[in-house]
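Format notes (please read before filing issues)

Several people have asked whether sequences and structure tokens are stored in separate files. They are not. Every record keeps both together, in the order shown below: the sequence lines, then the token lines. Line labels are part of the format and must not be stripped during preprocessing.
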Amino acid sequence: EGYKIYGTRVTHGKSLKSLEKSEKFVIIMGNEGAGIGEVSEELCDEFIYIDMNDNCESLNVGVATSIILYELDK
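Then the structure lines:
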């Protein structure tokens, strides 16, 4: 169907700022502790992360999803 599947990952992902954006995409959001899981990882074409300030520990999944959707819509 031409969809690019992005999975979130805290390490070894591509920064949203350097991501080549796709018009059709799916985002698999993981939780803070366990990530997205092995089965979901196998579905991903690419892994992404949000650049964060050193003063921030983490983002809740709703906030992270909002930031990613905003960046991918630019």
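For reference, the curators noted about this record: The CA atoms of residues 30 and 37 lie 8 Å apart. The first helix runs from residue 38 to 43.
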